[in-house]
Write a structure and sequence with these properties.
It contains 19 helices and 26 strands. By secondary structure, the protein is α/β, with parallel strands linked by helices. It has three domains: 182 residues, ANL, N-terminal domain (Rossmann fold, 3-Layer(aba) Sandwich); 180 residues, ANL, N-terminal domain (Rossmann fold, 3-Layer(aba) Sandwich), CATH 3.40.50; 102 residues, GMP Synthetase, Chain A, domain 3, CATH 3.30.300.30. The strands form six sheets. Strands 7-6-5-3-4-8-9 form a seven-stranded mixed sheet. Strands 12-13-14-15-16 form a five-stranded mixed sheet. Strands 17, 18, 19, 20 and 21 form a five-stranded antiparallel sheet that branches. Strand 8 and strand 9 form a beta hairpin. Helix 2 packs across helix 3. It is globular and about 70 Å long.
Length: 550
């Protein structure tokens, strides 16, 4: 690329260029929210003005406990109004919010808290049995704040400085938040891979504000219209996972009503969806399936018409999209990863597709979608050659955007694997069509190579999931002396007492061979009926555990 020297004019001596800081997202949201509430389960609700006061009180409490700029504060909680307050107060005082993945194994949680150098911990009482045996090894931690649903006394050896609500009640509801460099680290969390310890992913105030502004513009755009001041939002993505995809920040900026469900319980989720009239949620497919299979939803005792759900983390299958649509639920796909903050693409249906019958939209809805503003995506072959945008040529997906994590925390070697030649390499295999829509074929590690041909496990899962007696499916490749690898499917039936036969499932897949949608060697020769498929800590199919169980 040629170098250029554009004109840069001097600023007026008294002019300022304020940094992009998370505090301004909160201020903007309170301005526009009116009397919109923040709701936590069926336990409490308060308006945005009280929400802002509580953020100030939390900042006062943390400062009184000696938390300073640059300190790392860990949070272990279910999705709650408290967690939302931590999203703001902790980075707004210049500290770093560590959202601890409470679903990791205890030894992994210990590793992440030691590696992050946590000095203070806010924890729900449910996690005391987890933390108590770890605490002697967490020698940097100076104190714990206990988050309780009831005022009952708790006996614990941890150095508990007080209960969350009681401590907040002692504080002034005004805090003079400092101004500092927008490149200061705001958040830190850990993502797991197939090997090694979890990797620390961090984001700055600047990155989070830019991601929020981008998400807000997209979610209000024509053809999307997911979120605004007049919408009701409830996440079904854990707040420890990439800030619940950053949407709580966006919902706050826009002043939307926010509903936090606490620990995920299918019946409570349905209760809140109905009683709070939730308009928009986001989740992985397995959690949507959990809601759809509750007795209240499956028997049509409740009406979820108009609920819009953004699916990410794993591919949205045509089968799941159809089942949701039959219940009046509008689903579409998004794509991103922990390292990308996460939003990269969203399904914005072309006008001619949006006006077509639903069955004609299915293929589009299950694509990863179009890049959001300021995101650059292409796919490259192993030599780095950019692949044609023909919807057929596949390669590894690589991306650029202003909010991508710049490195793994204290992991130089792994950071160099993530970034190459100015691009972040996702580890996903995909293609881009003439309209610019990205389709994800698989993770590189999950592509199945059989007889010299590549098979997409995601494609096989999508096809097999269309069988009316299949509730969930996972496909992995296993070593085979003759073919190199062969696909094996794990299937959870709709009715565990009357599962489909092996012959019926094979016959169903062979129809796709006859239709030219699947090569004959793609039909799994081994299909196992199971009552549950292993999931990761964020609800994705855990193919590492599936392979280890074969």
């Amino acid at each position: 690329m040629p170098s250029v020297t554009p004109k840069i004019l001097p600023a007026t001596a008294s002019a300022t260029n304020p940094p992009l800081l998370i505090r301004d997202l909160l201020t903007a949201g309170v301005r526009v929210a009116g009397d919109n509430p923040i709701v936590y389960r069926d336990h409490c609700r308060h308006d945005y003005r009280r929400f802002e006061e509580r953020v100030h009180q939390l900042a006062q409490m943390l400062t009184a406990q000696g938390v300073e700029a640059g300190d790392v504060v860990a949070v272990l909680d279910w999705d709650s109004h408290r967690y939302l307050e931590c999203f703001f107060a902790i980075p707004m005082i210049g500290a770093v919010l560590h959202t601890v993945n409470v679903r990791l194994a205890p030894e992994q949680i210990l590793y992440t808290m030691e590696h992050a150098e946590d000095v203070f911990v806010l924890t729900h009482e449910d996690f005391l049995p987890l933390l108590e045996p770890l605490a002697p090894k967490l020698d940097r931690v100076r104190g714990y704040v206990l988050c309780q649903e009831t005022p009952q006394a708790v006996n614990t050896p941890l150095n508990v400085v007080g209960e969350y609500e009681a401590l907040l009640g002692e504080q002034l509801d005004q805090y003079d938040f400092p101004t500092f460099d927008e490149n200061a680290v705001a958040t830190l969390f850990y993502t797991t891979g197939t090997t090694g310890n979890p990797k620390g992913v961090f984001f700055t105030h600047r990155q989070l504000v830019l991601h929020t502004l981008n998400e807000a513009s997209l979610f209000q755009a024509a053809g999307v219209e997911l979120l605004s001041r007049d919408k009701v939002y409830m996440p079904i993505t854990p707040m420890f996972h990439v800030h619940a995809w950053g949407v709580p920040y966006t919902a706050t900026l826009l002043g939307a009503t926010q509903v936090y469900p606490g620990r995920y319980d299918a019946e409570m989720l349905v209760k809140l969806l109905v009683e709070e009239k939730v308009d928009f949620s986001h989740c992985v497919p397995t959690l949507l399936n959990m809601v759809l299979t509750t007795e209240a939803v499956a028997s049509n005792r409740v009406d979820l018409t108009g609920w819009r759900v953004l699916i990410g983390g794993s591919a949205l299958t045509e089968s799941l999209a159809k089942r949701a649509w039959a219940l009046g639920i509008d689903t579409r796909s998004a794509y991103g990863m922990s390292e990308t903050c996460p939003l990269l693409t969203v399904d914005i249906l072309p006008r001619h597709v949006e006006e077509a019958p639903f069955d004609s939209q299915l293929g589009w809805r299950c694509k990863a979608g179009l890049p959001t503003p300021l995101v650059e995506i292409d796919v490259v072959d192993p030599s780095g050659q950019v692949q044609p945008r023909d919807g057929q040529s596949v390669g590894e997906v690589r991306v650029r955007a202003p909010w991508l994590t710049q490195a793994y925390f204290k992991e130089e070697a792994r950071s160099e694997e993530l970034w190459r030649d100015g691009w972040l390499y996702t580890g996903d295999v995909g293609s881009i069509d003439e309209a610019g829509f990205l389709t994800i074929s698989d993770r590189i590690k999950d592509v199945i190579k059989t007889g010299g041909e590549w098979l997409s496990s995601l494609e096989l899962e999508s096809l097999l999931s269309q069988h009316p007696e299949v509730a969930e499916v996972a496909v992995v490749g296993v070593a085979d002396d003759k073919w190199g690898e062969r696909p094996i499917a794990w299937v959870v039936p709709q009715n565990l007492n009357e599962p489909p036969s092996f012959e019926a499932l094979i016959s169903f897949m062979e129809r796709f061979v006859e239709q030219g949608k699947l090569n004959r060697w793609g039909v799994p020769k081994d299909i196992r009926i199971v009552d549950e498929i292993p999931k990761t800590s964020v609800g994705k199919l855990d193919k590492k555990r599936i392979r280890s169980g074969l």
